[in-house]
Amino acid sequence: MKIVRYETAGGAPAWGVLDDGVVLAARGTPFLDLEPTAEPAGKVRLLAPVTPRTVLCVGRNYRSHAEEFGNKVPEEPLLFLKPPAAVVGPDAEVVYPALSRRLDPEAELVLVIGRTARHVAAADAWAVIGGYTCGNDITARDIQKSDGQWTRGKGFDTFCPIGPWVETDYDPTDVAVSCTVDGERRQDGRTKDLIFPIPYLIEYITRFTTLEPGDVILSGTPEGVRPVEPGNTITVEIDGLGSLTNTVVAEDPARLAGS
């Protein structure tokens, strides 16, 4: 099942199911009892397919990415959080903040939690994952480095595009993860090269925090990370999960002036 979240004609969000390219309205709750109706939703604007309470990210989970920035390969998962306000959906604008001089996209496989998860053993990890989608860990690299920790550099509004849908029936163990900018391929990795595989991540994370349905884990990004500028269009693509496209725009000076 491909679960989507979309904006209705009245502007309210609604859940749906993508069936052969057509969005069908749905009733119920994702990962619990969601069922499509026979009613097409019509031409709709897709939103981020989940509204996570917790956005957990794994840094340097590809050896090649750690090495391209001259960083040590971590001995344990390197975790950080993004604010829920950073989450946006397909075709949403990514705002290049005036505070930054370098903005990097990072293509990632996203794990979507499907049931409450606490103290989950690696052997049981697949049972708590409700599905998978594409994600983009946008990073203000200069701020990340100058701060010495990652909250601001990773946490601006619009810095976590997710979508276009959540696929509930999917094998994520060896799939291609890529990022293109204005059609130029920059990142091209495979999930089989994750340093810490998905079951290990679920066990490690749920030892210290509870994850709820709709929470997400961004599993790491492969090598090839390079900066973007306002006007660039970024596309993250993962085999079987579609593509997630967002355009970079400069921060509006009027917003900085408080008007």
UniProtKB/TrEMBL annotation:
It comes from the Bacteria. InterPro entries: Fumarylacetoacetase-like_C (IPR011234), Fumarylacetoacetase_C_sf (IPR036663), Rv2993c-like_N (IPR018833). One of its GO terms (molecular function) is acetylpyruvate hydrolase activity. Pfam families: FAA_hydrolase, Rv2993c-like_N. One of its GO terms (biological process) is carboxylic acid metabolic process. Keywords: Isomerase, Metal-binding. Residues 54-249 form the Fumarylacetoacetase-like C-terminal domain. This is 2-hydroxyhepta-2,4-diene-1,7-dioate isomerase. It comes from Actinophytocola xanthii.
